[in-house]
Structures are given as C-alpha cells and as structure tokens.
C-alpha cells in the first residue's frame, strides 16, 4: 500500500509538471503564432475550468477579506457610537436635572421676594423610608438659629415644622404625619366660624384630611385650604391642600374633607424655614406636643 501511494503521488507530480511545462511553452510561443497547435488547444481547454475555479476562489477569498475588514470597521464604529450615545444620555440627564433645579430655585427665589416672612433656605439631606411621610432631615440646626417648632415651607405651601434640632441639622415633622394637626379654613369663603383641623390621613398615605367641620360649612370640591393662624405654630394664609372629597363623619354630626396636599411630599429638596415663629421646649427638653387645631 505504501509503494502504491508513493507511486500515485509521483504520477500526480509528474502530470502537474507536464501541465506547467506546456503552459509555459504556450505562453512563450503564443506571441509569435496566430493559431495554437492542437495539443496547446487541448491543454488550454483542460486548464480553463481550473483557472476559472482558481479565479473565482481568489475573488471570493478577497471578498471575504474585504467583508471581514468592513465588519471590524462597523464593529469599531458601533462601539464608538454607543459610547457617544451613552455620553449624550448622561449629558441630557444632567441638563434636565439642572433645568429642574433652576426652575425650583427661581420659584423659591420669587416666593422669598414676595413673602413678608423671614426665611432661611435649607436642603433635605436625609429621609427614612419607613417614615417617608412623617419625618425628614434638613441641613440647618441651632448654630444657624433654627429652633424647635419653626414652620417649614416651600413656594407651594406648608411642609411642616421643626421637630428636633441638632447643631447643624434638624428633623422636620411633615404635615402628613398623623400626629400633628393644623387649624385651617377655606380660602374661598374665609368664614371665621368654619375652622377645621387638618392632619395626615392614615387611611391614605400622603393625603390630608380636614376634620371637625360643621354641617353648614361652605366647602366645595377644589377649594383651597389654608392655615387659619389661630394656633401658636403657623402664620395665617399658608396653603395646606385642595379639597378632593367632602362627606359626613361616622356620627353624621360633623363633616370632613379629603385633601390633596399642596406640596409634593415625595419630592422635597429645597425648603425654607420660617424664622419668626417657634414653640418653646417643655421643661424636660422634649418637643412641645402639637395638638389638633393647635395651629
């Protein structure tokens, strides 16, 4: 078997050498003659399919190489475009945040210039997820003159009041905390005899409820509810919320109103502390209790 294999290889090599010799002779003599010999024609005819196949193979290999180079270029360009898109998305997000912050600051500045209160700007620095609608922390404390009980507001309305004070920070009890109550009235009617108490509505987190309204109260859907100024904490006229629903209490003697807060308590960032009103601490140093209707 081994000798047969060597013999076959030798024959193949010999045939190839003969073909190459004939092709060379054909090339050398073709310029001097108009017609090819019969043998030369046979060789050309025999080799023509092989040459076509070789040409097509070379073209395909060249095309494949070009395709590979083009694919790599596209891949590199795709990576570059993705990086640029990511950069532009980050830039767009930063610009959007700056526009929103600029809008908030302009709104707060306009509010500060129009109000008669002495206001100290402050920023929210912490919120407890379990007390999201009850307590937040701001970056001003007693070293900046903050005292317990001072009202905290935004340009939209009342946020709450200072609950505890540290050297450079304070906790704010929000208006939506069910533990607090604010004496309030209907801005439209401003009836001094129709004063209720606004407090956090435990049955619907983030909303307010106005209780203890007399049956004859002139209150309607969409009415704006403001602080009455009757208590020691909050000055009169701070917006608390807007009436969503009016109904009778469980005994049918008094009425209530469900309120949409004027302030978006989920997105508080920049606030103002009203520096003119505050409540003294009790003798044991604990915050004075804020009763319903206490302002």
Layout: helices, strands, pairs:
Elements: H1 2-29, H2 38-114, E1 119-127, E2 135-138, E3 151-153, E4 158-165, E5 170-174, E6 182-186, E7 195-200, E8 208-213, E9 224-227, E10 239-248, E11 255-261, E12 270-274
Antiparallel strand pairs: 1-2, 1-12, 2-5, 3-4, 3-12, 4-5, 6-7, 6-9, 7-8, 8-11, 9-10, 10-11
Written description of the protein model:
- This protein has 295 residues and is of the alpha+beta class.
- The chain has a domain at 120-274: Thrombin, subunit H (Beta Barrel), CATH 2.40.10.340.
- 36% of the residues lie in helices and 24% in strands.
- It has two helices and twelve strands.
- It has helices at 2-29, 38-114, and strands at 119-127, 135-138, 151-153, 158-165, 170-174, 182-186, 195-200, 208-213, 224-227, 239-248, 255-261, 270-274.
- It has a six-stranded antiparallel barrel.
- Strand 3 (151-153) and strand 4 form a beta hairpin.
- The radius of gyration is 44 Å and the shape is rod-shaped.
- The protein starts with a helix and ends in a 21-residue tail after the last strand.
- 26% of the residues are buried.
- Residues 277-295 have low confidence and may be disordered.
